[in-house]
Specification:
By secondary structure, the protein is α+β, with helices and mostly antiparallel strands. It has 2 domains: 183 residues, FAD/NAD(P)-binding domain (3-Layer(bba) Sandwich); 132 residues, no CATH class. Helices cover 23% and strands 22% of the residues. The chain is built from 7 helices and 18 strands. The chain starts with a helix and ends with a helix.
Length: 413
Amino acid sequence: MNNARFGPYFRGVSKWIGKSLPEFPGARELFALGGRTLFWGMSAPRMDVSEMTGWPVTEKEMDFYYKIAEQVMDVSNGYTKGSSFQENILNRLRYNGFPEAADVPTPADLVPTNYGQIHSDVFWSSISALAYGLNRKSFDLAVNARAVEVLVEKGKTAGIKVMSLDKKPYFLKAKTVVLSGNTFETPRLLLHSGIQGRAIGHYLTNHSFLLSTVKVSRKQFPEVLGPMSVMIPQTQSRPYQIQMGGPEGYLWYQRYEQEPLQDELSIGISAFGKVESRFENQVYLDPYKRDEYGVPEIQVQFSYSEKDKAIINQMASALTQVVSAMGASFHTTDSHPPICLMPPGSDYHESVTCRMGDDPSTSATNRYGQIHGVSGLYAADNSILPSIGAANPTLTTVALSVRVADYISNQLK
């Protein structure tokens, strides 16, 4: 997969749901085994500790599960190790006002392939976890089927109703069900199943998202570049994260034979701003539209607060400083401004619609991911995050999901 193929492929297999969500127009969904983890930016930083103040999970416990998640996902700084391009950009940033600039933690298995059996999947997805799981214990896997209803009897989970592609229903009995649909689909399934909860679907949170492309002279760098993936992390006093990668898409294996012919190198820069988790921002069922399986479509109510807008302005100012510190220049055209504020939903980091917490009036699950008031029903995806700050959410989602699984395992002993 290279940069030219990635975009068209992703757009071809995912669904642009934002076209019917005027307040969240950038949103896309992918209905597939593996879901969102099949297409993500491979950036796996921990959330800043200041963001976890008030969470129902302690900093010490999060550190424990972060370590497990990082081990499972092969998260390290090794992907850019030895890259002259990486070292050069890091030094420029650190000596010009950004001492916190660091390598982006990347989930990449860098062990050479052994007969194509192990270590053949470089970048992590949940498919990798399922595959390794088969080495520990066999399990059944139903594909080409859609979950349409959670079955509950007298406050206890009884199973789930699914439908095959030919719309034939199946009823799977289970005392324990874990929903990992995503921030849109998990609350959608809960609400359609008649499961009550004041917070279900509410507190929809994303990142405000600024995007830029910059150019640096090719003459400033040695012939063999290597990939570059740098971040300036969120801190208590900096409510945003800046992330940059290059040249021409840092995740793709480099085609060095083309690089000496270029006069300029392209670097993509993203800035993610903290957005307040507010009750009024929500996912809810559309009373007039249903999908092919008879499940109501979703609608989204969303807006940025005045505080969110102030952070967006801070990010724009910081991007200008970062570009100057790198010795780069913005790439602009008549239709492409130097800094683009992307439409809400374009970050694909939406979270928090089934947030965990101790109070059922402000959270959908308890501190272990169990839906309030329903024994045996859990959620384990981006929706259970209590907040997301400015960091990419995938590592935190995996850490909390492992924690949910740990709790369920202990309960079943």
